[in-house]
Design brief:
The complex is a heterodimer.
Chain A lengths: L2 H12 L3 E5 L5 E6 L4 H11 L3 E10 H4 L1 E10 L4 E9 L5 E3 L9 H11 L2 E3 L49 E5 L11 E7 L2 E8 L7 H7 L6 H5 L7 H15 L6 H29 L3 H22 L8 E2 L2 E2 L5 H27 L1 H7 L7 H7 L3 H5 L7 H4 L20 H25 L18 E8 L2 E9 L5 E7 L1 H7 L1 H5 L2 E2 L3 H7 L10 E4 L6 E4 L1 H10 L1
Parallel strand pairs in A: 2-5, 6-7
Antiparallel strand pairs in A: 1-2, 3-4, 4-5, 8-9, 9-10, 10-16, 11-12, 13-14, 14-15, 17-18
Helix pairs in contact in A: 8-9, 8-15, 8-18, 9-10, 10-15
Chain B lengths: L1 H34 L9 H10 L10 H21 L14 H22 L2 H32 L4 H4 L12 H17 L11 H4 L9 H26 L10 H22 L6 H23 L3
The chains are: A alpha+beta, B mainly alpha.
């Protein structure tokens, strides 16, 4: 069904509640609705039309329209359609009906705009703070346009501790994180444990929220942001880099030169290769199988070298600018990449054969961390987690971007819903990635790398972009703005949705399965904010607070 | 005269265990590295590791520092006492001082040390670690006891030098019970020496070393040393009970063959550890329980003289 047919469907059902609609093409649909019927429209789209929930976005639009804006993004994967349901809210005490009781996956997104913009989700069942630290004073919302990017509000108490919920009766609390050998980044799970069984948990993350979106809206410019975007994640940085560039390009309807599209595809698949190999290694490490961990990383290493040869870096490729790419793939690199793929394919076949026959690994991963189709639908799970539960979704095929519409590949699915199925899906996707890169090398035309941009980008356009990261769909939402920077840029990394389902996945499972269940979504958190120094002369140690460190750095 | 020999023998065994334990650990690490396509540390690395840990600041931490220190001392002391009771290429120096039941008690005591260490740390993870350790111990210790008792039944004696000399095969006909017990012990040997797939109680990626999480510096060195020595002691016990062939040759051949066999066992442990993922505690206990049933069957066979 096309975007126009979907729109007509909605208009038929809701009539005047649909205030306005934009159809910038066949693959994007923006529907503005009345606040009072927002919930009904979302329910209809999510349940009756069976769209996938993507993310909710809040925006302080007061400088432009004098109002706040909330957008709920949905994806019609079969129709290749991304749809945004937008609603304007009054500038004083903005309130919006919560949709999280209809769509559990909206839980975090609504709490996030409550924290950052002060838009109250009315009827939210668990409106606890999510992003802001607990010492942050009430009533200060950093993403509002009148709050400067570097403001530390009056009364901010850095030492304030997080208030935890009470554990259920009969359970002891096992703190998991913020620092734990299998968590490479800080996040805290308070596990409620009965014997060796996990009965529930409370999550506390966002410990190193860096405010990248705020920086983009207030400090950086269009072509700075791709470099910042790829620093969102240490593993799938290129995904954010491409997704942002595409969101802006889609907003202002900019066409890319074909060679640039192929190069983007190649780099994204190189990233998927190294990410999947990294993950298989880590998963093996988590269950104590270090031999495969080492072998997997050995096989992975040449991919990092070729990435360095192309972009100058093993990671953070600095690939995209608006309208093109910055690096070319030379004939020598092309030949080397081909050789590397042959070797990689042969070695990976051996690993896959070894793992598939290994009863021991299957014993630890089968029936563990189960996320079934209902959970996938309700929580909006994506990527290998969804595909391992039989949900046949993949943005590369469903919402084609770059050169994915010109290459042939299969979307790997499995039906086990457990960690083992996720292992299988990821292992098999490696072969598909190899296939895609080979086809790209074959089909890549000669030509320029960038489309020249001569005029200022138009203001007030909306752009959506979904890129299939190794962990699932990365979704970027952009509204273009003045001063050569976006008015709003919202990033939804795949872990944002997948992590919300972890408490459900580990419930009533053994404590020992916690780490591999969490690991199976391939979580991506962030970096540290404190360090300890020891004065060698006096032997005295002291802990530096974040504030002191910042002062120290700025002084130098 | 005999007292002197006993003292010399005890010293010889204890020194040998202390000297060889890090070497075996080095072999284990090197071979593991080779399997994993790594270069691996030099063979002498574990000696350096221990020296470095011993030279570090002795930090008091956890909820009961005194108990923590005691557990570390007791752990190494227990293992070294065992060294004097187990024949290692020549008869056990303290064989007159106790019988095989003492050996079983001492082996249990070394498990108790881990329990004390975990209690002293008092953190959630160490408590989970010791609860797993205890479950493992309860399921495992009877296995070794059954093997030793079967040997005692065959030979009609609890004497160390009689039982720890391939006694499980000491029957008139085909040694059914002995071979069954050999299989059961081989399958559970990784658990006795706390290696993958049965290093459940300290599982780094789950429990962050469990009972040992509060240990550092010299106390950690003692515990690590005890763990390395345990590999040697259990290796020696296994060889004494199940692979006696060649050990009776004249010195130094019997002695050399004995240590070669222990070394072979260490390599086997390495190989299994490098090719397996860790089991979950419930999977492991189920596995041990089925082995125990088999072992008890073997004990019944043994009591009927098979």
């Amino acid at each position: 069904m096309t975007a126009r047919e979907r729109l007509n469907q909605l208009k038929e059902k809701f009539g005047p509640a649909i205030q306005r609609a934009d159809l910038p093409g066949d693959t994007r649909l923006f529907v503005y609705v009345e606040p009072s019927s927002l919930k009904a429209v979302c329910q209809h789209i999510f349940r009756d039309l069976d769209a996938r929930y993507v993310i909710s976005i809040g925006l302080d639009d007061r400088p432009v329209s004098g109002q706040f804006l909330v957008a709920h993004d949905f994806a019609f994967d079969r129709d290749h359609l991304l749809c945004s349901v937008l609603v304007y809210l009054p500038p004083d005490h903005p309130k919006v009906d919560s949709i999280s009781d209809l769509i559990p996956g909206a839980n975090w997104a609504e709490r996030e705009f409550r924290d950052l913009l002060g838009i109250e989700p009315v009827g939210h069942r668990y409106p606890k703070r999510l992003v802001l630290p607990d010492g942050w004073p009430d009533g200060v919302h950093p993403l509002r346009k009148d709050v400067p990017w570097n403001q530390v509000p009056e009364g901010f108490d850095e030492e304030a501790e997080f208030k935890f919920d009470d554990p259920p009766e009969g359970c002891t609390v096992v703190p998991f994180g913020p620092f734990h050998p299998t968590l490479d980044e800080p996040a805290h799970f308070r596990l409620y444990v009965e014997g060796e069984m996990v009965r529930g948990c409370e999550y506390r993350g966002f410990m190193v929220h860096r405010g990248i979106e705020k920086l983009a809206e207030s400090v950086l410019t269009y072509n700075d942001i791709p470099m910042m975007a790829e620093r969102i994640c240490g593993i799938c940085g290129c995904v954010h880099n491409v997704a942002y560039a595409q969101a802006v390009e889609s907003a202002v309807a900019l066409r890319l030169p074909p060679r640039a599209e192929y190069i983007r595809t190649i780099m994204l698949e190189i990233e998927r290769l190294h990410s999947h190999l990294l993950w298989v290694g880590l998963a093996c490490h988590i269950v104590g199988f270090d031999t495969l961990f080492m072998q997997s990383w050995r096989i992975r290493e040449p991919i990092m070298w070729i990435a360095e040869k192309i972009s100058g870096n093993r990671k953070t490729y600095a690939l995209c600018v608006i309208g093109g790419v910055r690096w070319d793939i030379t004939p020598e690199v092309k030949a080397e990449l081909r050789r590397l793929l042959d070797k990689l394919e042969a070695e990976w076949r051996e690993v896959v054969a070894a793992v598939s026959k290994d009863k021991n690994i299957q014993k630890r991963t089968r029936g563990v961390g189960v996320a079934d189709k209902t959970l996938v639908k309700n929580a909006g799970l994506i990527g290998p987690v969804a595909r391992a539960a039989g949900a046949d979704i993949d943005c590369r095929r469903d919402h084609p971007y770059a050169a994915y519409d010109r290459v042939d590949f299969e979307v790997i699915t499995a039906t086990g819903c457990d960690v083992w199925s996720r292992v299988v899906v990821r292992m098999m996707e490696v072969f598909e990635s190899i296939r895609i890169i080979r086809q790209c090398l074959e089909k890549m035309p000669e030509g320029p790398l960038q489309t020249p941009i001569t005029d200022e980008l138009p203001v007030g356009r909306l752009g959506l972009s979904s890129v299939e990261a190794p962990r699932g769909e990365s979704h970027h939402f952009v509204i273009t703005g003045e001063n050569n920077r976006p008015h709003r840029w919202r990033v939804r990394a795949p872990t944002y949705q997948n992590l919300q389902a972890v408490p459900m996945m580990i419930k009533d499972q053994q404590l020992a399965d916690m780490t591999i269940s969490l690991g199976s979504i391939d979580p991506c958190f962030s970096c540290t904010d404190r360090l300890e120094t020891i004065d060698l002369k006096s032997g005295a140690s002291r802990v530096w607070s974040q504030e002191e460190l910042i002062r120290l750095v700025r002084k130098a | 005269m005999s007292l002197l020999i006993i003292i010399l023998g005890v010293l010889a065994n204890v020194t040998l265990v202390l000297l060889l334990a890090p070497l075996f650990q080095g072999v284990l690490r090197k071979v593991t590295a080779q399997i994993q396509s790594r270069q691996g540390p030099p063979l002498r690395q574990p000696y350096f590791d221990l020296l470095k840990l011993l030279g570090k600041e002795d930090i008091e931490s956890g909820q009961a520092p005194a108990m923590q220190r005691f557990a570390a001392y007791l752990s190494l002391a227990t293992v070294l006492t065992l060294a004097a009771l187990v024949p290692m290429g020549f008869p056990a120096p303290l064989s007159g001082a106790g019988d095989v039941v003492l050996v079983i008690y001492l082996l249990t005591l070394s498990g108790i040390c881990t329990l004390l260490a975990g209690l002293a740390a008092g953190s959630t993870y160490s408590l989970v670690g010791i609860s797993r350790e205890m479950m493992t111990m309860i399921a495992l210790e009877p296995l070794l006891a059954v093997a030793i008792v079967a040997g005692a039944i065959h030979t009609g004696s609890f004497r160390l030098d009689t039982v720890l000399n391939g006694s499980v095969y000491a029957v008139g006909g085909f040694p059914w019970s002995g071979l069954i017990l050999l299989g059961a012990m081989l399958l559970s040997f990784q658990a006795f020496v706390q290696r993958v797939p049965f290093d459940i109680s300290e599982a780094e990626t789950e429990l962050m070393e469990g009972p040992l999480m509060e240990y550092s510096g010299p106390k950690l060195a003692l515990f690590k040393y005890a763990q390395m020595a345990k590999l040697v002691i259990y290796g020696a016990l296994f060889v004494d009970l199940f692979v006696p062939w060649g050990s009776a040759l004249a010195f130094p051949f019997g002695w050399l063959i004995f240590w070669l066999k222990v070394c072979g066992l260490v390599l086997l442990v390495t190989l299994v550890a490098a090719t397996h993922a860790r089991y979950r505690i419930d999977q492991a206990i189920r596995f041990f329980a089925s082995l125990l049933v088999v072992a008890l069957g073997a004990l019944i066979l043994a009591s009927y003289g098979y």
